[in-house]
Amino acid sequence: MPGQAIRLDPAIASQAAFRAVMDAMSHPGEVRTFATTVRAPAPLNPAAAAVACALMDFETPVWLDGPLAAAPEFVTWLRFETGAPVVAAADAATFAVIADPLAMPSFSAFALGSHDYPDRSVTLLVQVERFGEGEPMRLSGPGLARPRGFSATPLPADFIARLHVNRALFPRGVDIILASDDAVAALPRSVRVKRESD
Amino acid sequence: MSLPAYNFAYLDEQTKRMIRRAVLKAIAIPGYQVPFASREMPMPYGWGTGGVQVTAAVIGPDDVLKVIDQGADDTTNAVSIRKFFAKTAGVKTTTATREATIIQTRHRIPETPLHVGQVLVYQVPIPEPLRFLEPRETETRRMHALTEYGLMHVKLYEDIARHGHIATTYAYPVKVDGRYVMDPSPTPKFDNPKMDQCPALQLFGAGREKRIYAIPPYTSVVSLDFEDFPFERYRHPGTCALCGATDTFLDEIVTDDAGGRMFVCSDTDYCETRRAAHSPPPLAGEGQGGGSAAGAAQEASPSLPLPSKRGREEQDLKAAEHD
Fold first, then answer.
1. A145–B218 C-beta distance less than 8 A
2. What are the φ/ψ torsions at residue B307 (nearest 5 degrees)?
């Protein structure tokens, strides 16, 4: 029927993935489970793949970490599904996808935005195995009525220290989306992080 | 015939992704105005194109949409935008603040307290709070970068020097999370305290000016003021003629051509809910105090200062640019 919108699945699916990320970004550390039918070739997990499909396109240069860049099937999939240019220079990327968090480069390797345009900074899409395990952190700041605990694994041993530096750069800095197989959580640059034991 | 005339929620997917990326950066940098590639919409600038684009990028098939214009669900702008999304996204719409998951608003924050999970989308005419003080975008951008907000305080000081009080009544500047000074859009300053630590996500879309900004839930939002001239939440000293509320923001309604007028709640849903709870409805005139409105009058503000000499401020508000 003319004038009648048909619900195309990709539009609904990317909206669902985006909404999970938006909720996660508005409530740092809150884990949002969502169902997705998106499947990427190894080594990227389904939730991270769904986020990639929902947010990346020809306007967003993407940097891939070692294991992803070394997986030609995955690179072909990403190029085909999103049209995003894959770049070798980390600081030229709008998104960086990290399959092996333990080996992730320092945040300063990426675009951190400028004081005039702090939004021109990278968003890190980091694949993790599980939430609720690993070094416990205490999060506070915008989006949190009261401080809350958060943990995910695997993450670099000095991850909390890196987040400290990131917060000190505010309003510049990186924003992080963490994705397990079926859930996402986010650590926007506005979040204040402490070691749970401090 | 079988192909849809447009995508779900009108905008194409690439546009939505672009807006979604801007929304995420806006949430991560509370109060900072993220530039975005605002599209032409099937309505003129000034009718909420920014808000509509943000809503279109955020909305999903399970959302329940409410749209208000100056607090009212039944004005042209609100009705049109509600119908637009009912048609292009097939979503359920409502006028009840509690039921809505997304509320698009022009110049009011509902009186009913918002809850976690709701998204309040503001239509914004001029997103830059410093614009009328410094017309150059390059300069205002640098002022935000350097947290150089002295000029705004000078403006508020000049209000005091001229009028004896801070005469800004709407679009009253706020500081978000202790960093960015932000324009809350032309909401009355009566609504400013509702933004502070609000459980709902607040998104702002300025279509003509091509900016998106945000206040995440539970974020500190402080109205700028001075120690000796603290921010005052202004409310016209009157009683709603329909529901008897003494704690809501009021609209003045001219009832005849002989000077007759009455004040009613600007938030139509709140007013109707109160009237439904009252039985029989109170008559115009004396306030009922709202004490019998079970659960409806939760906005606790009995200690509001009610200065008496500022009746004209509300008219100033009405003169605000239509957006």
1. yes
2. -60, 145
**C-beta separation of B205 from B228 below 8 A:** no
Nearest residue, CB atoms, A118 vs list B3, B10, B29: B29
- Confidence at residue B284, expressed as pLDDT on a 0 to 100 scale: 52
Is the predicted pLDDT of residue B300 greater than 60, yes or no? no
Q: Is A22's Cβ below 8 Å from some Cβ in B?
A: yes
- Nearest chain A residue to B142 by CA distance is A116
Taken in order of first residue, the domains within chain A and their CATH numbers are: 9-195 (3.40.50.11310)
Per the CB < 8 A criterion, the answer to whether A65 and A90 are in contact is no
DSSP SS3 for A105 = coil
Q: In the sheet where B174-176 sits, what is the strand order?
A: B180-182, B174-176, B221-223
> Closest by alpha carbon to B190, among B239, B248, B241, B230?
B248
Q: Directed axis angle between helix B49-58 and helix A9-26, to 10°? A: 100
- 3-class DSSP state of B148: coil
Would the pLDDT of B96 be above 80?
Answer: yes
Region at A143 (left for phi over 0; alpha for psi -120 to 50; beta for the rest): left
Reported ipTM: the value is 0.95
How far is Cα of residue A170 from the mean position of the Cα atoms in its chain?
Answer: 18
CB–CB of B118/B200 below 8 Å?
yes
User: B119 - beta bridge partners?
Assistant: B102, B201
pLDDT digits (tens, 9 = 90+) for A35-94: 888 999 999 999 999 999 999 999 999 999 999 999 999 999 999 999 999 999 999 999
Q: What is the CA radius of gyration of chain B?
A: 20
Give B162's contacts (C-beta < 8 A, 6+ positions apart).
none
**In whole angstroms, what is the distance from residue B189 CA to residue B159 CA?**
15
Q: What is the 3-state secondary structure (H, E, C) of B51-108?
A: HHHHHHHHCCCCCEEEEEECCECCCHHHHHHHHHHHHHCCCEECCCCCCCCEEEEECC
Q: Which domains does chain B have, with CATH numbers?
A: 13-223 (3.40.50.11310), 250-306 (no CATH)
Q: Which of A19, A26, A125 to mutate to test the interface with B (most CBs of B within 10 A)?
A: A26
Active site residues of B: 31, 240, 243, 265, 271
Helix (H, G, I), strand (E, B) or coil at A139: strand
* Pairing verdict, β B174-176 and B119-123: unpaired
- B224 φ, ψ (degrees, to nearest 5): -65, 140
Beta-carbon separation of A175 and B58 below 8 A: no
